[in-house]
Amino acid sequence: MRFLFLRCVCFLLLACGLALPATVAAEDYQQASSRLQRGVFYYHYLNDDYQPALNTLNAWQAEQAGTAGESELTVMKAGLLISLGLYRDAETLFHSLHSQTAPGDAWFYLARAWLAAGSYGAVADCAARALNSETAAAEHRLNPAYTAEAQFMLITALAHADRVEDARTLLQQMPDDDLWSGYARYNLLIALIRNYAPRPDIDRLSDEAVYFMPATEEGRALRDRVLLVSGIYALDNGQPQQAAKRLSQVGLESPLAAPALLQYGWALSAQLRYRDAMQPWRVLQQQYQPFHPAVLESLLAVPHALELLNATSQSLHTYEFVEQRLQTMLAQLERFNNPQRIAEWLTPWLAAQPPVHGWQSGVPSTAEADADISRTLQALLDNADFNDRAGQLRELIAMHNHLQQQRGHLDLWDRLLQQRRQYLTTLAGQQTFDRLLQRQQQLSQQLGNMRQALQAEDNKIFAYASAADQQNIQHLQAIVPRINYLQSINSPTRDLAAYKERWRRMRGLQLWQIYEHKPARQWAAKSTYWQLETDISALEEQLAHTRTALSWADRSWQGFPRQVAEARSRAEQLSQRLERLQQQQQAVLLQQVQTHLTSLQQRVTDYLAQTRLAVARLYDDALQQSLMQENVSQADAGAAHD
């Protein structure tokens, strides 16, 4: 009974499952497919692999056309276009989104893309939409992990628009010890300084940013940036003590240590602490490369401080040492400022840069560039415009390499086409087909003859008898008539009836053997017939394939050589265009490098001129002082003589 009950339950469950409408299964499939495509898109997008993300988004958008989730796809497509550098298309698509609603995460990603592009008005709009999604449905709300970053982006946009009070109000809603709050305070601090806000407000915001900064590596880097900006601001506003206090807190391992050491020395110098001021400048000269702007300025600052201390001899010797050092640097710049030398440096430097997009972004290459030129051009390598142009050149190089690879594939197709044609010519396909056709005709005729023979054998009395059996039967049949004929000619001396009967019995035995072996012989004959029929069928199939192959051998390649030639021509044209663009972009980079080196030469030349003027001035002061002392001595000697 229990087994019967379980069977009934299973039957009812199966019946209920079969009773579900087909639309439910279709909806589940569409939802699963949509979730899968959504996951694949965000995987590629968040890994900066934008081309596969765009392909996935197009397929996903085609499937979600006319549904409620289409707005999310439109918002993410705008962000993807920004990431691909298609700013005009992104702006056109973005302006069409004002009346649409989308999930908060989508608006957040779009705000992040606009922030990277520097469009702060769009950042404010998208970040506000992302934060306002908290009142929407649960599936459309902003991820709580993104709330602080969205608030930071909105504060940054407001600060850039000089809406300081609105940014302050929003900053009060953020956690004090969050890293995004630190970034927001820093951007608000820059806006206050730019708008000449009251000094107490700037000092209070600086203190808050330093105090609440989290004790992480990124937090320490941001803290150093806040200290540097607030220290320079205090120094410019006549607060050298406060500036020195803030600048001294910048870490020596920080990327901002060089300008902080320079300004810290000037802050001490403003307090008439000249000996203390020389210490950070000497540390700066020892730890950083000589062409750093802060190092160049500190080279003249040290002898200037010695001169203010009335250490004239030490100041003069320091000026002379600085003069020799600047001359060496100037000779090095003249050696570097060579187009051929710059081109030799630029190629391996570009190869050493990590890719911008894709899963390998940030992975350094094994190629090495000239370290001396790289150190000299450190300020240029930190320039955003130079890096953008270098990235464009790397993309052009990657496109050219990919095009060269495709041209190699086209060459392989052309070579394969020639090999196939040569192989078909070597095979002599038509002659082989004629031989196979002749062989098929012979086998077909042989099969017809065998069919007729089998039909004739079925109609025979002694069917499927061998040639020996037929010959024996003929002999046995002829013996009795011959005996009768002999009896009619001569009178026999004995009775031959027994002999006749014996021969008749022998013939019966022979006939019995024939009938006994008939099934086996019949099966062997029919098997041979069937095998021949199978061979003929296989041969006919081979003939059909051969006929099709011969008919398509030439037609299948018709137009393909032309298509390969056209593709190679287009690839050649694109390659030439890419080479021209690559040369133009490389010329622009070379010009930027030369301009930067020329500006360095001018700066070093100016410092060298100031150094020489200082040396000449010190020598002149010493000479004037010596002449004055000599005149005084002569006057004293004359007065004593009188």
Description:
By secondary structure, the protein is mainly alpha-helical. It has helices spanning 2-18, 22-46, 50-63, 70-83, 87-95, 104-117, 120-132, 147-160, 164-171, 179-194, 199-211, 217-236, 240-247, 257-270, 274-287, 293-308, 312-336, 339-352, 371-376, 378-381, 384-427, 429-459, 467-489, 497-555, 560-641. It is elongated and about 205 Å long.
Based on DSSP secondary structure assignment, what is the total number of beta strands?
0
Uncertain runs: 1-26, 362-367
Cα(first) to Cα(last) distance is 152 Å
Shape: elongated
Q: Sheet bearing the most strands, described?
A: none
Walk me through the topology.
Blueprint: H1 2-18, H2 22-46, H3 50-63, H4 70-83, H5 87-95, H6 104-117, H7 120-132, H8 147-160, H9 164-171, H10 179-194, H11 199-211, H12 217-236, H13 240-247, H14 257-270, H15 274-287, H16 293-308, H17 312-336, H18 339-352, H19 371-376, H20 378-381, H21 384-427, H22 429-459, H23 467-489, H24 497-555, H25 560-641
Task: Give a nutshell description of this structure.
By secondary structure, the protein is mainly α.
